[in-house]
Amino acid sequence: MPLRVVVAGATGVVGRTLLPLLRERGHHVTALVRHAGRLDGTAPVDDVAVADLLDPAGLSRELRRAAPDVVIDQTSGFGKADQDEGLRRTAQLRERGAKHLVDAAVEVGARRIIGQSMTAAYRPHGHDVLDEESPLWTDAPGCWGSAVRALAAMEEALLTCPDIEGVALRYGALYGPNTHYAPGGAIHERVCGSELPLVYDGVGLTSFTHVDDAAGAVLEMLTNGEPGTYNVVDNEPAESTEWLPAYARMAGGPAPVSLTLDQAKAQLDWLTVHQLTEQRGATNFRLRETMGWRPTWPSWREGFANLFGLWAG
């Protein structure tokens, strides 16, 4: 059954992937953007709504005009900003913007809202691979702690409102076209510039999510699945000592240098050290078992190879 769908963050890496898929399924698609010029005339949408998530009055006006059945929030504050600035912008969008979007969606009678969260926000715990019941690291230090607290506030707004079905999709590290892992992206440049090292005895785990799989999970949740949180990750959480050298080889970059933990703490920012040494991966068991969802790219190995034109499958 065709739905009226509003996509906030339509110009982001997941939003751009999602728009044509929604149209292919016959849905009426409205792209919600902050500036009118962000989408050109070739974008696969039926309508464009211009509003800022931090402007509740303007947001309500545009959603009232769009009259959505489902609202999808794929907004991010990163863009071309540096890491700390991106975290600050994203925290603001998550904490205030998401609440405004929930309120506006309820006001116009939408029945479901789907928000973007992340598995990297889980509190590290031993060597475990974490599920949706694991706590978020809301007392983490610095900008990262602020970002996780904002994420928790966003999820609370989505999941506790009695007047709408809220779904929070927790993505892993997003990779694919136009992401930080693509040629020219921030991770690609750091790896090719020997700026992302291996750390002796580092046990950091990363769960990866291809943008195709993120968009596919959103499609599945439009009409199916119970409200709640779902990890959207591939089947193979990867230690940094495993995925980083493999990525460097496929990208044609130098082999990563190796540092001790003390050297890494002296040379790198706190968040990078955390990701390389103590971050935990996540399981996609809930989404697989309750929805029958399967990732198009079940392993980052295949996904990275495809990203660099090396995948023959």
TrEMBL record:
GO CC terms of this entry: cytoplasm
Query: Any idea which GO molecular function terms this record carries?
Result: aldehyde dehydrogenase (NAD+) activity
Name the SUPFAM superfamilies for this protein: NAD(P)-binding Rossmann-fold domains
Write down the InterPro entries for this protein, in alphabetical order.
Answer: Epimerase_deHydtase, NAD(P)-bd_dom_sf, NAD(P)-dependent_oxidoreduct
Pinpoint the NAD-dependent epimerase/dehydratase domain residues: 5-232
Q: What is this protein called?
A: Nucleoside-diphosphate-sugar epimerase
Please tell me the species this chain comes from. Saccharopolyspora phatthalungensis
